[in-house]
Amino acid sequence: MRFAARVEVRLRPGIADPEGATIERALPALGFEGVRDVRAGRSFRFEVDAADEGEARRRAEELAHRLLANPVIEDSVLELAPVEGA
Amino acid sequence: MRFAARVEVRLRPGIADPEGATIERALPALGFEGVRDVRAGRSFRFEVDAADEGEARRRAEELAHRLLANPVIEDSVLELAPVEGA
Amino acid sequence: MTVAEEPLHRALGLTDDELAMATAVLGREPNHLELALYAVMWSEHCSYKSSRLHLRRLPTEGSRVLVGPGENAGVVDAGDGVAVAIRIESHNHPSAIEPHQGAATGVGGILRDVFTMGARPLAVMDPLFFGPLDAARQRWLVEGVVAGISAYGNSVGVPTVGGELTFDPCYAGNPLVNVLCLGALPVGRLVLGRASGPGNLAVLLGSTTGRDGIGGVSVLASAGFGGEGAGTDDAKRPSVQVGDPFEEKRLIEACLALLDAGLVVGIQDLGGAGLACATSETAARGGVGMDVDVSAVPCREPHMAPWEVMTSESQERMLAIVTPGDWPAVAELCARWEVRATVIGTVTEPVPGDGGAVGRLRILDGPGGQVLADVPAASLADDAPLYDRPRAEPADRTARLADDPTADEPAGDCAADLGALLVDPSWVYRQYDHQLFLNTVVGPGADAALLRLAGPGLPPSERGLAVTTDSSPRWCAIDPRAGTALVLAEAVANLACVGASPVAVVNCLNFGNPEHPEVMWQLSEVVDGLAGACRDLGLPVVGGNVSLYNESAGADIDPTPVVGVLGLVDALRARPPGMGLVAGATVALLGERAAPGDQPHPLAGTRWAVERRDRRSGRLPALDPAAHGRLVALVAALVSETVAGGPGLLASVHDVSGGGIGVALAEMAIAGGIGARVRGIAGHRELFTELPSRFVVATHDPEALVARAEASGVAVSLLGMAAGDRLVVEDAEGTALVDVPLAELTASWRDALPGRLDDVADAAG
Amino acid sequence: MAARVAVVVFPGTNCEHDVVTAMERVGAEASLVWHGDRDLGPADAVVLPGGFAHGDYLRPGALARFSPVMEAVARFAAEGGPVVGICNGFQVLTEAGLLPGALVKNRGLRFVCAPARVRVDSDRSVLTAGLPLGTTLSVPVNHFSGSYVCDPATLARLRDGGQVVLRYLENPNGSVDDIAGVANAAGNVVGLMPHPERAVDALLGSADGQLLLRALVQQAAGVRAA
Ligand SMILES: Nc1ncnc2c1ncn2[C@@H]1O[C@H](COP(=O)(O)OP(=O)(O)O)[C@@H](O)[C@H]1O
Ligand SMILES: [Mg+2]
């Protein structure tokens, strides 16, 4: 079976996010009001071949933890869905 | 009302994604099998104050198009949810 | 008229006459794939059809020239068994759409031109032109372009050692991003982009081929010619490419290793027109043919049609010609560098024809498969149309020459004008690695970059390489011919500031729409100005690039020739004096103080007139090539004494260019952190005139300097002293034209860019 | 016999030749070791040079830390061998867990290439041993992700243990506590963002980097003698 994975990698709370802060600072000058708490992260999409959803999740999570995020500063969130017709 | 927005910015289909390709090429050597079509993107989270969901969506989409993504090479996907108790 | 109604060849950008030419070459109507090949190869970008006629007037011969224009890069003999390859190119249009990737891929492209010659790229320079920074869109462009050059150049590992930064309203709709690259090689490793030896293999190296950069040819998709699923969806054919410096880095190392091991017969980068260009050019240069198997080309996307594969401009690819016997070694070496290598074709014998043997480029579907296209290889490269487009002097030229700002009164506040003309470009170059390879003796921020002539695999040498890029759309808009000559003169003066003598010139000619007769007139004038100045100064042109159609909303950019000049230093053992003033030194001007005639201090085309008074007219001062030659030879000699490790007469040196003596003095004071007091300056005209052939210098031994200058037939005037913490400039009566604290000037200089750029800009502007 | 320095090359590394040149300048013998090798060869010290290993894709150092050679580097470090990561090499060492903390994008979100003044704040490392505390050096920085971060507990540990070996006088990137270089607790593994190999010749603007590299070479020679 094939599964589509999306991993969002975000800076852990408390870690400074200069990118988010820069965007937020620029917003009023660009005419965007009422936007706050901008946080920048990364997202990765990939497909996993696995016998079942459990195995796919295990492998995708391992990939997210061991590789895609740096646990010293980042958290990751995984979303997984079976690929139709695959 | 307050809404939590998440914008995922991805390279448009057909645009080369050297980062995704490099990660994918490296995976077998790192012991990750059966993973393919890795695409790297960026994600942003922020909160929007708006009178209603329609307005929040409009503002968040404008922000995504005008600032967060370059539409020449990137698409953006917005997810929006009301913030409870805000 | 919609595309569907338009004949296919016109939709592809070929005129009816051009179609007739292609039909005559083939003796039949070209099929769609062949039409695509002619369309891309006969485009302005690839064929130089509007400019070729004029470029022939540039002098290209010189005793050090090993390879002149026409190859991927010019190559000159630097001595000690080392050759230097140099090339400049534009990436203007891609950068206007996606500044980061447009500029990044510009760097990638110019590097490939240089390592194709067997040279290791050692330095990049980036002349940039934008609209004024008041507009958010311009800030977005500057941010993106600089970040793109930074991201690609730093990562690929080639230092960016200088460039230029010009703001003018004429670039608001069409920024210019030029990139120069310089590389070095042991003379024996020089290779040329040609195929030879029928039976040899054509090997594609590097990245996969995608639907990027197909551009104008993509109308074929709707012409019902594509393969299954071929790009009916516009989103599948992005015109913007994303650069991959990591792939390029591996490609550089693999290609240089292949060349070192003697494993390639010829090699050629894939740039504009992709495989169509690389295969036909290598075959044509070698007088052979080539069979290309499109189905063998590794593609990034499924179902790519043959025309897409052949015309894609996907980045980071090279074509190598190798013997069948060497192929296993080539494959192994590429595998080590993790570079993909695929045999995609074979060199073939020329086929006997009416006018002698003809090498044919055949595109096959599978080995020995169906022949999809069959054209004489040379017809794509050499038989391209050549146009002598109409030229016309601008109607207002006489009136513009007559309307000279030199006469304008009143002068205004000289100190305020001076402060406003100071710009520290370090906001840009701090983002560039300019030190890699441990060669950069003088990096960005000086008059010219000065590098040790060293690199991995090069024989040892004590020599130094100097390089500068220069341009002046202000001058060229007023008088393209005289302006271009002045630009070359300034470049040579910049080299003298680091003790170097010029040896070769490259140029990038950025112009508007060649279908406008005024633009063609500008181009022709610029070529004549450059040709004349090169002859006068004894310099060969070894390469260049022409970028046309730089226009927006019907308005052409001002003519913008950019020259890059390479110089040599015989013995590089110590740092040149640099521009910083030294306390207690005497400040002097080398060169004539006044122009002959009734305008001793002309202001036409100066930064003062254009930027401070918005006056873009008048008559430029003339260059006296003989006097210029004497002066730069003297300065180069004086500086090279320091550079060779001697005591040297000069404590500081800076050529007088944009902003005149005023800006030169201020920049020298800021760099040295020491003020100066100067007198006898004849008002704002002498302060701001950009009269050519002058240097401001400082010395601890004014008598010796005067003696050296007089012995060389160079005029010298003592202006004042470097001291204190103010810049004071007085006229002959002792009235202060400028009297400002150095700290104030330093702040205006330092904050000019960061003050306007340090916020996120808005893409939509 | 001169100290032997192994200079590790990942695909995308670009300062390896400069490090070799600089190490030779201070009297060491240096040789390149490819990232795919599992063996460092005869080495008294290891340097991970600057550049963009694997293009810095994903995160600087994130892919490089999985290279086969890194097991050998970890073993060498565990046995007390001197290991220095410069710039990208520092990033690799933090990703590999051989040094604490992480390097994130510069405050200002721009690449910075400029001379930097740094101060020696600890001599308890193979790179600073024997240097007087407070020595100020001019050594260039050249990075996009050079802002050092770690949690408060780690920072306290680093300070107390003399593991903060170099600090910036003018912080160019937003590093916590102006940190330019850190060592592990034993002092034999050091990472720093400034490039000492770019400061070994007055012709290029500064020779201050020689002080650091000489200290390393001496330590390496000492390790071998012991
Ligand atoms: N875009 C740029 N990239 C790198 N360096 C730049 C750039 N623009 C200007 N510089 C550097 O700043 C210095 C001053 O540039 P410029 O004013 O054009 O010098 P000059 O008047 O002597 O030609 C030069 O060393 C130049 O290389
Ligand atoms: Mg210049």
Structure description:
The complex is a heterotetramer, with two copies of chain A (86 residues), one copy of chain C (765 residues) and one copy of chain D (226 residues). With 86 residues, chain A is of the alpha+beta class. Helix content of chain A is 29%, strand content 40%. Chain A has a single domain (2-82), classed as Phosphoribosylformylglycinamidine synthase subunit PurS (Mth169, Chain: A), CATH 3.30.1280. Chain A has a three-stranded antiparallel sheet with strand order 2-1-3. In chain C, the strands form six sheets. A seven-stranded mixed sheet of chain C has the order 8-10-7-11-9-14-15. Chain C has a seven-stranded mixed sheet with strand order 25-27-24-28-26-29-30, sandwiched between helices. Chain C has a six-stranded mixed sheet with strand order 1-2-3-6-4-5. Chain D has helices at residues 16-25, 69-78, 88-95, 152-160, 209-225; strands at 4-9, 29-34, 45-48, 83-86, 102-104, 112-120, 136-143, 147-149, 164-168, 179-183, 189-192. Chain A binds chain B through residues 8, 10, 20, 23-24, 26-27, 30, 32, 34-50, 59, 62-63, 66-67, and chain B through 6, 8, 10, 20, 23-24, 27, 30, 32, 34-50, 59-60, 62-63, 66-68. Strand 2 of chain A pairs antiparallel with strand 2 of chain B. Magnesium ion is lined by residues 468, 470, 494 of chain C.
Helix/strand structural class of chain A: alpha+beta
Quickly count the domains of chain D.
1
> What coarse outline of chain D follows from CA principal-axis ratios?
globular
Describe the oligomeric state of these chains in a short phrase. Answer: heterotetramer
Q: Trace the largest sheet of chain A across and list its strands.
A: 2-1-3
- For the termini of chain A, the CA-CA separation is 7 Å
Number of domains of chain A: 1
Q: What is the residue-mean pLDDT of chain A, rounded to a whole number? A: 92
Q: What Rg of chain A is obtained from the alpha carbons, in whole angstroms?
A: 17 Å
* CATH architecture assignment of chain D: 3-Layer(aba) Sandwich
- How many separate helices of chain D? 5
Distance between the termini of chain D: 14 Å
Q: Classify the beta-strand content of chain A into a percent band.
A: 35-45%
Low-confidence stretches of chain A: none
Number of strands of chain A: 3
